[in-house]
Amino acid sequence: MLLGVGNIFQLRARSISLLFCLILTGFALVSLALTPSEAQQPIPSAVSPANASAISPQVPQGGAAGSAPSTFGAQTQQTGLNIVVLDPAHGGTDPGARGTGGIRESEIVLDFAIQVRHALEQEGFQVVQTRQGNEDPSFDDRSALANAQRGAVFVTLHISSTGLPGTARVFVNSDLPSAIGSNGLIPWDRAQAPFLGLSKKLGDLVQGLLAQRFKGSPDAVQTASVRQLRTTAAPAIAVEISSVTVNDRAELDRMAPGVADAIAHGIAAFKPSYVVPNTTGALR
C-alpha cells in the first residue's frame, strides 16, 4: 500500500523519537549495572611490606562461616577458597636441614611439592608455588605472594632434623600480640595474628589425616614461632616431615603420596569454613 509524503515524514519522526528513547533507556540501565553496591566492593590484599593499602585489621578470629564478629567488630563474608599457595621451604644458598647421607631439605620439599600440587589440583584448587626450582625467595616475598591472592590458604613444606622418622607434624604460628597498631593498621610482622583461629582449624584437619596415615604422628596441630607464617595474612600452616636423619632417602620419598593426600583432603574439608574479612584498612 502506498503512503502519502506527509504520512512518511510522520512515520520517520516517530521512529526517530522511539529510537532516541530506547538509547536513553539503554544508557540508564548500563549506569545502574555499573554502580557498585557495598557488597560488590573488591577485597584488596597485601602485596609487600612497603605496600600499606591492603587489608583491614578487622578480620575474623573464629573458623566457621557465620560466626560472631571478632573483637575488632568486623563483618565476615563467605567466599570461595580457590587457591593454595604452596611453599617449598629454603632453596638456593639455604639448603635447610641436612642429613649425614647427603639429604638436603630444600631438594626433598621441592619433590614433595610436585605430588602435593597434583593432589590439590585433583581437588579442584589452583596452586601457586613460591619457588619452582632452586631459588630462595625471602620470607617477605613468600608472604607477599600469599597476601596478594584472594580466596587462598598458605602451606609451607619442611623436612625436620628431629622427630620420629616416618611421622609428620603440622604447625601453626604461636599466639602473637594484638594485630592492631596504635595507628589502626596491622603491622606486617603480625599479619598472621587475626587468622590464627582459622589456621588452627585447618591445621587440625590436616594433622588428623596425617596421624591416620603415619603412625606416631600427633593427633592435633602444634604451635611454634614459624617465620614463614607470621607475615602471612591468610590461614597458614607448616607441614614438617621427619626426618633428614634417615639412612635412605627412599624412606622419605615413600611418604610423599600420603602427605600430599592428607594436605589436599584436609584443605578440601576446611573449604566450607573459609571466611574472609570485609577489608577497609591496611598492613604496614
Structure description:
With 284 residues, the protein is α/β, with parallel strands linked by helices. The protein has two domains: 1-35; 76-277, Aminopeptidase (3-Layer(aba) Sandwich), CATH 3.40.630.40. It has seven helices and eight strands. The chain has helices at residues 5-33, 105-122, 139-147, 196-213, 227-230, 250-253, 256-270, and strands at 76-78, 83-88, 126-129, 152-160, 168-173, 222-224, 236-242, 275-277. The strands form two sheets. A six-stranded mixed β-sheet has the order 3-2-4-7-5-6, with helices on both faces. Strand 2, helix 2 and strand 3 (126-129) form a beta-alpha-beta unit. Helix 4 crosses helix 7 (256-270). The protein is globular. Mean pLDDT is 78; it is low at 1-13, 15-48 and 50-78.
SSE blueprint and pairings:
Elements (H helix, E strand, L loop, with lengths): L4 H29 L42 E3 L4 E6 L16 H18 L3 E4 L9 H9 L4 E9 L7 E6 L22 H18 L8 E3 L2 H4 L5 E7 L7 H4 L2 H15 L4 E3 L7
Parallel strand pairs: 2-3, 2-4, 4-7, 5-6
Antiparallel strand pairs: 1-8, 5-7
Helix pairs in contact: 2-7, 4-7
Query: Per CATH, what is the topology of the largest domain?
Result: Aminopeptidase
- The proportion of residues in beta strands is 5-15%
CATH homologous superfamily of the largest domain, by name? Answer: Zn-dependent exopeptidases
- Helix share, percent: 25-40%
Roughly how many Å apart are the termini? 77 Å
What does the main sheet amount to? 6 strands, mixed
Topology, number of strands: 8
What's the CATH first level of the largest domain?
A: Alpha Beta
Indicate the overall shape: globular
Number of domains: 2
Radius of gyration: 26 Å
Mean pLDDT: 78
Strand order of the largest sheet: 3-2-4-7-5-6
Discrete helix count:
7
Helix- and strand-based class?
A: alpha/beta
Q: Which H/E pattern describes the elements? A: HEEHEHEEHEHEHHE
Which CATH architecture of the largest domain would you pick? 3-Layer(aba) Sandwich
Poorly predicted regions: 1-13, 15-48, 50-78
